[in-house]
């Protein structure tokens, strides 16, 4: 059995004018919101710019000892390499604020760190001298078996 019921019209009759106004009221805030976001973002970027993302450049250099080279000569080559590397690191990237370089020397299969350079951009700009900012490792000479290299006769 089916029940037949009559559909009674609602007591509220829709007015076309009211529905059109209601649509416009919904659309206007949405348009204002969408249009105002870009100027608000630009204003915020102008007032509070993004923080600079500075960082430290880390470099590991390896130098091979040449056959008739003593420790002092290896050390001078290491200083020249670290000086060039530090300058290159600061020149290549303007966001680099600090440079950290470790130079290792290889002698007949043994490898040991000889010097480390830790310098900031203002320090390097005021005095670009590797000897001033470098830390020398005292045990590198004995680790590389170069303690008596001055006493060896040249072949």
Explain how this protein is built:
The protein has 155 residues and is of the alpha+beta class. Helix content is 44%, strand content 23%. The protein is built from five helices and four strands, in the order αβαββααβα. The chain has helices at residues 16-47, 71-92, 121-126, 130-133, 140-143; strands at 55-64, 96-107, 110-120, 134-136. It has a four-stranded mixed β-sheet. Helix 2 links the parallel strand 1 (55-64) and strand 2. The longest helix is centred in the first third of the chain and has 32 residues, at 16-47. The protein is elongated, with a radius of gyration of 37 Å. Residues 151-155 have low confidence and may be disordered.
For this entry, give a set of tags.
four-stranded mixed β-sheet; 4 strands; alpha+beta; 155 residues; 5 helices; single chain
């Amino acid at each position: 059995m089916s029940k037949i019921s009559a559909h009674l019209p609602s007591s509220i009759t829709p007015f076309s004018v009211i529905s059109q106004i209601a649509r416009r009221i919904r659309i206007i805030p949405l348009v204002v919101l969408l249009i105002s976001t870009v100027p608000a973002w630009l204003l915020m970027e102008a007032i509070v710019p993004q923080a600079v993302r500075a960082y430290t450049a880390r470099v590991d250099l390896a130098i091979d000892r040449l056959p008739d080279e003593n420790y002092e000569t290896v050390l001078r080559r290491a200083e020249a390499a670290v000086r060039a590397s530090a300058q290159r690191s600061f020149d290549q990237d303007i966001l680099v604020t600090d440079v950290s370089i470790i130079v290792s020397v290889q002698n007949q299969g043994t490898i040991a760190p000889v010097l480390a350079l830790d310098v900031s951009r203002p320090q390097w700009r005021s005095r670009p001298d590797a000897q001033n900012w470098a830390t020398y490792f005292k045990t590198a000479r004995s680790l590389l078996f170069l303690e008596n290299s001055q006493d060896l006769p040249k072949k």
